[in-house]
Amino acid sequence: MGRLNKTVVTEFILVGLSNHPQAQVAFFAILLVIYLLTLLGNSLITVVIWTDSQLHTPMYFFLSNLSFLDICYTSTSAPQALANCFIKRPTISFINCFSQMCISLYLGVTECFLLAVMAYDRFVAICNPLHYPLIMNGRVCIQLAVGVWASSFFLTVIPALTMPAEFCGPNVINHFTCEVQAVLKLACSDTYLNGIMMFASGVLTLLIPFAFILVTYIRIGMAVLRIRSAQGRNKAVSTCSSHLTVVSIFYGTAMVMYVRPQTKSVSEQDKLFSVFYGVVTPMLNPLIYSLRNKDVKGALKRVAGKKMLT
């Protein structure tokens, strides 16, 4: 009977903002606008990059991967959070919750490694410009992209296999979605191993890529200082500024969420960080790259001009 009592939980209740009903409508409106902007912005960036031949370069190839990833990442949680805003008792099955959690982890890990590859691309372009077309040829770019998506999958499977299978109550997740930290707090089995695995995974997928990006940009900075012309320095800095902004926002919020001691309860601040990390950041990426990038703005104008002519 004890074994049965530990496996009775077959679904979870998502709290969201049910403790603040007066904020539900405002939250729904803001989240809907952000989600629609995310879909529009990232879809537009992807289409423009693939249709404009002038953007068929390694940097924009990886940017199109990032835009596609952001669409997928936001879509794993935002539609459900929107639907749950007006449901009195929003629930999700154990299987769906576990699937959502694993997919979110996978896409988050993929973004970490993709940002590191994009930093390497900028390093080669600035520090070794003469050999850049040879080093970052089409075949290498595809191999790097496939390597990022595939390695992220295997790095996600290991923590997923250690997830506890026993939830004996309560079954109330104090979150908008099945965020991994919020779910682990409900496990009735020992989560010590899970905590170790999550910390190790955070180090491997957050700190190591971040350290690589940091070292890469230190070397880029040293190379930029050796450029004699101000125009050359400004051009080198402009190609890196958008990527650095995205890295700062993404890693800043991710480290606050995952690379820190975990408490026994989920605070309202944790939920806000999760929304910013999972929804706001993907919306900002296309804005950052389009507003601060002359090539993308030029391509958008060319595409708009073709549409008007047709």
UniProtKB/TrEMBL annotation:
InterPro entries cross-referenced by the UniProt entry = GPCR_Rhodpsn, GPCR_Rhodpsn_7TM, Olfact_rcpt
GO MF entry, a single one? olfactory receptor activity
Question: What are the record's GO terms for cellular component?
Answer: plasma membrane
Q: Which CDD domains match?
A: 7tmA_OR13H-like
Membrane topology, as annotated, equals:
Multi-pass membrane protein
Q: Which domain of life is it from?
A: Eukaryota
For the keyword Membrane, the answer is yes
Q: Where, by residue number, does the polypeptide cross the bilayer?
A: 25-50, 98-120, 140-161, 196-220, 241-260, 272-291
Give the G-protein coupled receptors family 1 profile domain ranges. Answer: 41-289
Listed A to Z, the keywords are: Cell membrane, G-protein coupled receptor, Membrane, Olfaction, Receptor, Sensory transduction, Transducer, Transmembrane, Transmembrane helix
- Tell me where it resides: Cell membrane
Q: Which family does it belong to?
A: Belongs to the G-protein coupled receptor 1 family.
Q: What is this protein called?
A: Olfactory receptor
